[in-house]
Amino acid sequence: MGKVLFVDDDPNLLAGIRRQFQRRYDIDFAGGGKAALEKLHSAGPFAVVVSDMRMPEMDGVEFLSTVAQEHPDAIRIMLTGNTDQKTAIDAVNRGHVFNFLNKPCETTVMTAAIDNALTQFKLRSMERDLLEKTLAGSVKVLLDVLRVINPIAYSRSNLLQPLAARIAADLGAPNIWEIKIATMLAAIGWMSVPEVILEKLFRHRPLGPEEQILVDRQPEVAYELIKSVPRLEGVARIIRFQNKNFDGTGAPESIALAEEDIPLGSRILKVLNAATPMDRTRRPSLAQLEKMEKSERVYDPVVLMMTRSVLEEFRETDLQEPVTVIEVQVGRLLPGDILEEDLTAPDGSLLLSAGSELSEFHIVKLRHDPKYPELSGTVPVTRYFG
Asked: What angle is formed at CA 296 by the lines to CA 290 and CA 297, rounded to 5 degrees?
């Protein structure tokens, strides 16, 4: 059972509530709005908050509106002797009050109200847990698909995620979880780009006009795939504007958005994507960052500065794992190995493309391939040693 917090400046009323309800509920008390906010932070979480309307310094509407912002999961009840229409409207609109109780309030009435509020809290908690599990499952499915279809883009995103999260944290972003997920899912749009174009990008070959259009559209494809997933609306928005220039130019050109109006996550992705080649190195380059710093109004200068700071810190640690290219027997390939050459069957058919970062799925799939027994010899791979 969740905890219940009673807030009132009348100590006699609080003493009476203690006598009536201390055996039925897990209860706590505060003598005013400011003291209650401190208690919510220090002794929370609370399932239900019951507050008087008329209190000095901070009235019930102001207090409950703050609770709604800082502790949105708590169910809010107002206890008042003033039931005028304006008080009720303010309480509902600003404090999102679940129930009103008139003073003096009979024990049976308050008991029913608190029981209903606790039930509502439980239902909301169950709904939130279900949404979080659905969200986690949806993200996992999308990432599993990306891992198989475009392992280069997947491993690149996997590398960039901690960088994006660190940059976001250093910039004081309130929604770091959205930026972390957006960094991973931003590459989903590459599933719409034909492999022949990906191969050109991988080998730094020029693209034709129509091929470039497909590449430029991949953020919009990712946005359309993700926007309807519950609780990923913000993530989809970050992904949609990842190619938007700081001055407002760039895709999507039909939407006017510039500078700080562009989501911070989009501005971070813009910088990290430009600093990180689409090849087997997949590491952000300080040299590339220096070139980007000379491009006026393309990148957010604050994000550029913070990215440089983070890359310089990561340069000697996370981004510089000991690495070597080795020849490996096909039967001894490991998850994390990156193919330096195409892996082909004796008949010339392609099994895995160069640049693929092998996962458990790839290795299991390879071993169940009818052509696997025919494979012999070695294949060059990049292997990281931690």
From this structure: 120
Percent of the chain having pLDDT more than 90?
Answer: 24
When the pLDDT of each residue in the chain is averaged and rounded to a whole number, the result is: 83
Q: 109, 117 in Cβ contact below 8 A?
A: no
Asked if 126 contacts 47 with a C-beta cutoff of 8 angstroms, the reply is no
**What gap in Å lies between CA 75 and CA 128, rounded to an integer?**
14
Query: 322 pLDDT band (50/70/90 cuts)?
Result: very low
Tell me what percent of the chain is helix, strand and coil, each rounded to the nearest 5.
55, 10, 35
- Whether 193 has a pLDDT exceeding 70, the answer reads yes
Task: Return the sign of the alpha-carbon dihedral for residues 6, 11, 13, 14.
Answer: positive
Per the document, the length of the chain is 386
Q: Looking at the domain assignment, is residue 139 inside a domain? A: no
Does residue 45 have a cis peptide bond before it, meaning omega lies within 30 degrees of 0? yes
- The model's pLDDT over 231-248, given as tens digits with 9 standing for 90+, comes to 889 999 999 999 999 998
Domain assignment of residue 359, given as a range: 323-384
User: DSSP character for 208?
Assistant: P
Report the CATH number at residue 12: 3.40.50.2300
